[in-house]
What does this fold into?
Amino acid sequence: MTHPLRYQQMIRENPHQYSPKHAAVLALFYPDQHNRTHLLLIKRAVDGQTHSGQIAFPGGRRDLSDPDLLATALREAREEVGIQPELIREITPLTPLYIPPSNHLVYPFMGIYPHNQFVKDAREVDELIPWSAETFIASPKYTEHIVTTDTGIKLSFPAFDAHGQIVWGATAMVLSEIRTLLTEVVS
It folds into this structure.
């Protein structure tokens, strides 16, 4: 994951090498049956793609028919977890980030959804992972994720542990931004 300023520098230095695909994701807060707020994460289906089997937010690549990147995030969330986009409130854009392994520039959005019923598309989503907003904000469990590169080099990444699911990479970076924003609001 590359910080937006570093990404802009990379483009200036070699514009032909960095022509990313645009994508958008949706960090969705919703009430459970006891009216406690949760954040929806998904485990991507194992399909051989770059982010196969990883923990993520609903989202994906922008289609030509999407008028903007918010529309992309809403369409992808509808397709992957069955939300009704028109019911989402308080949509806030977050900081875009570049993901080198898949050459995507991802635009995250955060919103509030009034329902706790989701329908996952099994072709794209293996599992829905509800994460208590209270736990996420007040006492998240931090860990690390080790990745071995094609050349055998082991790299360590900061990560969150969400009910035994390791959340790292771009999703962890977006979660850190959300946690910072929410912590500032409630303190």
